[in-house]
Design the sequence.
């Protein structure tokens, strides 16, 4: 019940790019995840992560794999456009509400 987790935000093809393993065009898929810390039932979102894979040869690219600069820029744009779900901010809202109640309690 307490720990880190990730949740899929979006999955999108990286246009005008080719897989360095099989050489096929427009087969790279970028998946963007919300990284979050779960405290019982309260989520606290703290960032995004991406995962890159090829739909043709099924290769999953690691962070250590070299990706050309143009493809990396396209992946960064997809990552920047992805939005966290609104309910992932409930933990922050609950903490802020508890803080306000504690201040005005007396």
Sequence:
């Amino acid at each position: 019940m307490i720990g880190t987790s990730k949740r899929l935000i979006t999955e999108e093809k990286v246009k005008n790019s080719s897989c360095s393993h099989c050489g096929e065009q427009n087969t790279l898929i970028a998946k963007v995840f919300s990284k979050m810390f779960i405290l019982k039932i309260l989520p606290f979102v703290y960032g995004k992560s991406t995962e890159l894979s090829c739909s043709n040869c099924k290769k999953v690219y690691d962070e250590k794999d070299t990706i050309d600069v143009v493809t990396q820029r396209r992946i960064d744009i997809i990552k920047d456009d992805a939005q966290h779900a609104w309910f992932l901010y409930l933990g922050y809202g609950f903490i802020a509400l508890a803080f306000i109640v504690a201040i005005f309690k007396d």
Summary: The chain has a mean pLDDT of 88. The radius of gyration is 18 Å.
